[in-house]
Amino acid sequence: MATADHPIGIFDSGLGGLTVLRAVHERLPGEDLIYFGDTARVPYGTKGELTVRNFASQDAGLLVGLGVKMVIVACNTASAFALDHLRETLPVPVIGVIEPGVEEALRRTRGGPVGVIGTSGTIRSDRYQQGLREGRAGFGGIADERILVRECPLFVPLVEEGMMGTEITRLVLGEYLEPLRNARADTLILGCTHYPLLKEEIAAYMGPQTELVDSAATLAEAAEQILVAADLLRTESEREGLLDFHLSDIPWKFAEIGARFLGRPIADAKIVGLDEMEQAGRTVAKGTS
Ligand code: DGL
User: Fold this and answer.
1) Which of 63, 103, 115, 157 is most buried by its number of CB atoms within 10 A?
2) pLDDT per residue of the chain (289 residues) written in tens, 0 to 9
């Protein structure tokens, strides 16, 4: 049985979800956080629904096996394809990035078009679009004509290569975002773990008429509300929460990329083998059968 003293689990397809871990740590500094990045199988954004759901079950299963009190799905693609399934199968509360992002966009839009950018999987899943159409948390839904989406697959490798602020990124940005700028989107959801690192460039390109929604910050707020409601928030925070990192591979540029997303170096990361991942997926599935 999970208690407030247990850690929060956060997973992503790779290191991009460290932007979410960073936001959660800033908002809830007393909470212990366990991060799992599936660096051996990243990217998820180009993969099909069943594969992503299967990987996400294993990722979340691993965290549950480590005793977390809540699972945060930091990856937009995994949130799009696996959130419902994880909510049905996991014994702890599960939160993804899409619902908080939708809510924040509905709060901020001023009646104009709302843009959503993400990986191919996230955009094709239609999850953000559904959320915007249906409305959330007292905010009414918006008409389909007001929802403009763009797949931006090249942003992921550009950020991983540290090419922010370069000419090539400016060109790609213009290629992807021109239709959204021409349509005068008043709000733009950054629907991918990597895009907060391009925030300034995207904001400069889109101009002051467009408000950007960074799902990492909105998710951290939503996670806090869920913990409070479930009586699982750690209230005694006299020490800074511990950060514990688990990865399925150590990529060549791990230190550089990790620090870029986290905003500081990662002290130490444990390796989890893929056989262990598969076992974690089976264990969590068995627990619910
Ligand atoms: N974490 C993924 C997301 O937010 C981006 C990287 C990938 O494609 O796996 O959708």
Assistant:
1) 115
2) 789 999 999 999 999 999 999 999 999 999 999 999 999 999 999 999 999 999 999 999 999 999 999 999 999 999 999 999 999 999 999 999 999 999 999 999 999 999 999 999 999 999 999 999 999 989 999 999 999 999 999 999 999 999 999 999 999 999 999 999 999 999 999 999 999 999 999 999 999 999 999 988 889 999 999 999 999 999 766 788 999 999 999 988 899 999 999 999 998 999 999 999 999 998 887 776 5
Task: Please tell me if the CB atom of residue 12 comes closer than 6 angstroms to any atom of ligand 1.
Answer: yes
Q: Is 68 in the same domain as 151?
A: no
3 within domain boundaries: no
Q: What is the pTM of this model?
A: 0.95
CATH number at residue 206: 3.40.50.1860
Total count of domains within the chain = 2
In a domain, 87, yes or no: yes
Q: Do 168 and 196 have their domain in common?
A: yes
Describe the chain by its helix, strand, coil percentages, rounded to 5.
50, 15, 35
User: Ligand 1 within 6 A of 117 CB?
Assistant: no
**Which ligand 1 atom is the nearest neighbour of the CA of 80?**
10
- Tell me how far apart the alpha carbons of residues 136 and 47 are, in angstroms, rounded to a whole number: 28
The SS3 assignment for 96 reads: strand
